[in-house]
Amino acid sequence: MKNKHVRIKTFTLFGELILKLVIAYLLIIIVLGLFVDGIYNNDIANYLYENNAILYYFCVSHKGELILGVIIITFLVIIYDFIKNRVQELNMLYSELDKVLDTNNLEFNLPPNMNEFLEKLNKIKYDYLLSQEKFREAESKKNDLIVYLAHDLKTPLTSVIGYLSLLDEVTDMPKSQESKYIKTVLDKAYKLEDLINELFDVARFNSEKIILEKEELDLKMMLEQLMEEFYPLLKEKNKEIKLDSPLKVMIWGDSNKLARVFSNLLKNAINYSTGKEINIKVTDVINYVEVQISNKGKNISKEKLQKIFEKFYRIDEARTSQTGGSGLGLAIAKEIVNLHGGDILATSENSLTTFIVKLPKNNGIK
């Protein structure tokens, strides 16, 4: 559609140029016919012959050369005027382009015949300001997150140092109390590991580009493996995952990256679910596969659903929450799904939150 529009614009400009040349040619023929050949008025031709015979015979004998010369001169003048007008438009457009990156200047000044360019400049300006606003918001969230993580790192680290100091100082500590302290230190160490991994996620997300290594894989088998990996967490929280899927669901994708997507979705479902069951439903359609992961829990507002896939956005903003992460999991999941040519969305109503992932099969084509 865009190329067609460009062709129409080009034909319009050349049509204008050709029309001017045709009009100039007709005027030249009329003038020569009037003053030399007497086609339109013999009196004028006779008058020219009687008063300036030399000029008359010169025009008659060199009529072809005169027509050609006038046409060439007229052609050059028209071409010059045409190019001059286009260059003036380009200069005006170039001067206005500087305003695109100028956040203090929101208005463009272009003549009415350049309204098409004006609309495009306004759209570019709007998109630029919107991207800048999103960038500043993401940077602010990232900086706040780093501050929170640095603060959170200090708390378990202080506990680890405290308990290890006690174990080092009290040599005759009862075995049961010693085991209790060691278990507490281990739990705090795991918490430290989680926080450090979150910091690495923040750094990697800003520096790494996700590259897919596709292969044919069985999506049902992948989900079953993830269910086994989550068994300890499910047992601890007294929850279970139920999978409803065809026997075999083959797609073409990056198994490691997709495992990360579904692992994140399942972890969120387990952490935020208020019910006992997390349900996975896999639907095998002709050209794509749809995976729905649902859990009962508190409804997510429409405002939060609109931002849920933005990087560094956390549904639970309280840093004391044990369920909150870096706010990167869903953003990375969306990027991975989009790179596969798929889509991911979330719904939340009637105390049921569902994440829907659609992935194309690609028929085995990379």
Per CATH, the architecture of the largest domain is 2-Layer Sandwich
Poorly predicted runs are: 1-6, 318-323
| End-to-end distance | 28 Å
Quaternary structure type:
single chain
Determine the structural class based on helices, strands and strand pairing.
alpha+beta
CATH superfamily of the largest domain: Histidine kinase-like ATPase, C-terminal domain
The profile of the biggest β sheet is: 5 strands, mixed
Shape: elongated
Query: H/E order of the elements?
Result: HHHHHHEHHEEHEEHHEE
Mean pLDDT: 77
CATH fold description of the largest domain: Heat Shock Protein 90
CATH class of the largest domain: Alpha Beta
Rg of Cα set: 38 Å
Question: Percent of residues in beta strands?
Answer: 5-15%
Number of strands: 7
Helix content: 55-70%
How many domains make up the coordinates? 3
What is the count of DSSP helices, taking H or I runs of 4+ residues?
11
Spatial arrangement of strands, main beta sheet? 2-4-5-7-6
Keywords:
366 residues, Helix Hairpins, 5-stranded mixed β-sheet
